[in-house]
TrEMBL record:
Reactions listed under catalytic activity: L-aspartate + ATP = 4-phospho-L-aspartate + ADP
Protein's name in the database: Aspartokinase
EC number: 2.7.2.4
Organism classification: Bacteria, Pseudomonadati, Thermodesulfobacteriota, Desulfobacteria, Desulfobacterales
Species for this entry: Desulfosarcina widdelii
Keyword check for Nucleotide-binding: yes
The Aspartate/glutamate/uridylate kinase domain, residue ranges: 2-285
Aspartokinase ACT domain boundaries: 393-453
Length: 461
């Protein structure tokens, strides 16, 4: 039994979705299919909440657009009238519930975390119902398994929930065993689970990958396939480095580091559930399904250079907190971390010296982070510096911390292109070294590093 995850980038356009349905007709029986929302639908739902908050009269148009997006796919993929009517009846309940929630939001004039998570989960819910109806119209038995029905249990944290693996595994085996053993296709919406109090709680953007990994672990699947609109992980972003190469194999740790440091192929937490069960993961391209893609498992072959990929992230920034002797003052780092936590801000990384604490944050958290620190009384620092025009570059490969000369070659390449490094972190991970440069230097640095480890050295002008 396999778990197959289909990303939102693939669920884009009637012809592409038809190709996916054709593939699932051949390869989906007796497997769990975890789906994202149709492309653009989650963003539409987020925008719709803001519109409903401002003006109740916009809700009919919102719902008309939402219904039409899904109905258009249904009309294209379902041929006979009876199956179309059954599909319409199946989706009607979700449409009605979403509409009531939007009117409730408009009435209360408040988007609570509970309501936000419930509304944004509808993209995945409706997509799962739609695709199951399409498959049933082909006389291939399919069912929809809603996380709140089959017991995908989380810790109840809105927007960033974590699954309770033991409870979830027991629930999945109880609810899904019969369907899978009889060869049905089980469509499960990704992105969300249900908390201890029965509330819908999401895993954050891209969280359907995590949902699929949870399902694979809970059901002890033979493998997890993640269907994307790309072949797999690359040695660099092809938009910056056209000669970048497909990476055929990665370890769990390498894949987790690449996901965390900017490669958008996987949600950063995807590796957690499959690593525990040693379940292999394969990235496949829905347009080219027979291409091998990238395989992820416990260990992967190590190239002579050690480095597998150069990743980057431009959505970050720095808060530099200056104070005398911060490295010797007990409790100051705890105060800083507590202030961030109290304001719901995640610290991506921290580097300290005797005079400065540097916090790596998401760029859109910089202002809120600064305000949180300025509210401390008494202030344990002299001043705060905000650096927004930064980019994070990471070189990833198992064993780079043990291989002599890797860091030297990396920074020599960067210096050779006249790029200044603003911050370095090396050591916490056995598989990644990362550093910061100014964003306008990013392209030159990535090209130089990739050329050093993968081809003839060159530098972008």
């Amino acid at each position: 039994m396999r778990v197959i995850k289909i990303g939102g980038g693939c669920l884009n356009g009637k012809r592409t979705i038809q190709t996916i349905m054709d593939l699932l007709s051949e390869r989906g029986k007796g497997n769990v299919i975890v789906v994202s929302a149709l492309k653009g639908i989650t963003d539409f739902l987020i925008e719709s909440m803001q519109q409903a908050l401002v003006d109740e009269s916009r809700i009919p148009d919102i719902m008309a657009h939402y219904r039409n997006r899904h109905a258009e796919v249904g009309r294209h993929l379902i041929q006979d009238k009876k199956s179309r009517r059954l599909c319409k009846e199946t989706l009607a309940g979700s449409f009605s519930q979403l509409e009531r929630l939007l009117y409730g939001l408009s009435f209360t004039r408040e988007i609570t975390p509970r309501l936000y998570d419930t509304i944004v989960s509808f993209g995945e819910r409706t997509c799962a119902e739609l695709l199951a109806a399409v498959m049933n119209s082909r006389e291939i038995t399919s069912v929809t398994a809603m996380p709140q029905t089959i017991g995908l249990i989380t810790d109840g944290k809105f927007g960033d929930a974590t699954v309770a693996p033991k409870k979830t595994a027991a629930n999945f085996r109880r609810h899904l065993k019969t369907s899978l053993e009889t060869g049905s296709i089980v469509f499960m919406p990704g992105f969300f689970g249900v908390g201890p109090e029965g509330d819908i709680t999401t895993f954050g953007r891209g969280g359907s990958d995590y949902s699929a990994a949870v399902a694979a672990g809970a059901l002890e699947a033979e493998c997890l396939e993640i269907w994307k609109d790309v072949d797999g992980f690359m040695s660099a972003d092809p938009k910056i480095v056209p000669e970048s190469r497909l990476i055929p194999e990665l370890s769990y740790e390498e894949a987790a580091e690449l996901a965390y440091f900017g490669a958008k192929i996987l949600h950063p937490r995807t590796m957690e559930p499959v690593r525990l069960r040693k379940i292999p993961v394969t990235i496949r391209n829905t347009v080219r399904p027979d291409v091998e893609g990238t395989r992820i498992c416990a260990k992967s072959p190590q190239p002579p250079s050690v480095i597998k990929s150069v990743a980057y992230d431009t959505g970050i920034g720095l808060l530099n907190i200056f104070a005398s002797g911060v490295g010797a003052r007990m409790g100051i780092l705890a105060q800083v971390a507590a202030a961030m936590t109290d304001h719901g801000i995640n610290i991506r990384s921290v580097v300290t010296s005797q005079t400065c604490i540097s916090l790596l944050l998401a760029r859109n958290d910089l202002d809120a982070g600064r305000q949180a620190l300025m509210s401390l009384r008494p202030r344990p620092f002299r001043r705060i510096e905000k650096v927004a025009d930064s980019a994070l570059i990471s070189i990833v490969g198992d064993g780079l911390s043990r291989k002599k000369g890797i860091a030297a070659r990396c920074f020599a390449a960067v210096a050779g292109c006249n790029v200044n490094v603003n911050m370095i972190a090396f050591g916490p991970s056995r598989a990644a070294l990362y550093f910061l440069v100014r964003e306008n230097s990013l392209q030159r640095a990535v090209i130089a590093i990739h050329s050093t480890f993968f081809s003839t050295p060159r530098c972008s002008n």
